[in-house]
Amino acid sequence: MNRWLGFKKYFKGTNLLTLMFSMVREVTVDNTPSAMSVEVTTDQAAYAPGDEVTVMVNLRNFAPNDSGYSYMNFTVQYDSEVFDNSEYLVQSAYNDSSFTPGNEVGNIFQFNFLNPVDGGVYFGMDTTMRGIDIQVEANSKHAQIPAVDQTLLTFKLRVKEHTLASSGSISLANEFTRIRTSEANNSYYLYSPDITALESEPVAIVPTPQVSVYSMGPNATAHRLA
User: Fold this and answer.
1) Distance between CA 75 and CA 174 in Å, rounded?
2) Which domain covers residue 65, as residue numbers?
């Protein structure tokens, strides 16, 4: 018993425990460079209730000498209390006229671009965020989505007519990201730790100016009910 107490006292008086935790932390930190950055932007910084919003998914900052990807899967999340896209959907999927593949993946003979699908994304008790699932795949092993700065696609949302919000969130839900690359005829999947999600600015919602029925110009004549 006394030997155990002596060991505890010695252990407490050294930095061995701190060193052990530091070593474990160094082993678990992932220093692998990011394969790319993904940024979600909108065509304007501010909108009024009822306005249409064009959302862009942009790919940036690819690693040097990156040969490209055979498959990409991103989920963009939006606040369903502020934005709506039901007018653009057919059975939960975007119709062809309501989204546009980017120039690098717009060739239907090279790439299979699935119509984005709207669905729920749940974070704990927060059920106001909904996710739009985006997938594009090369049609053959000889075609790769090139690793160059590009807008992968654009799609539409609409600010709800009667929203009272001052801002709304549209951003990448990076935990659902999945990308496939091929090396030496073997396929590898990259997930969210390998992709940098650039922070999206909140979208400002500007209230529509209300014209008061009592406002009168300097030359207006008052009309009173008899």
Assistant:
1) 7
2) 35-205
Do 93 and 115 contact (CB within 8 A), yes or no? yes
Is there a contact between 89 and 80 (Cβ–Cβ < 8 Å)? no
100 close to 178: Cβ distance less than 8 angstroms: no
Number of domains the chain contains: 1
Dist. CA 115–CA 10, nearest whole Å: 65
Cα separation, 131 vs 118, in Å, equals 6
Half-sphere exposure at residue 136, Cβ-oriented, CA atoms within 13 angstroms: 26
Q: Exposure of 121 by Cβ count < 10 A (0-12 exposed, 13-18 middle, 19+ buried)? A: buried
Residues 61-86 have pLDDT tens digits of 999 989 899 999 999 999 999 999 99
pTM of the model: 0.78
Beta bridge partners of 179: 72, 190
Residue 119 sits in a domain whose CATH number is: 2.60.40.680
What one-letter code names the amino acid at 42?
T
CA 66 → CA 19, 32, 63, 112, 128, distances in Å?
38, 14, 6, 21, 37
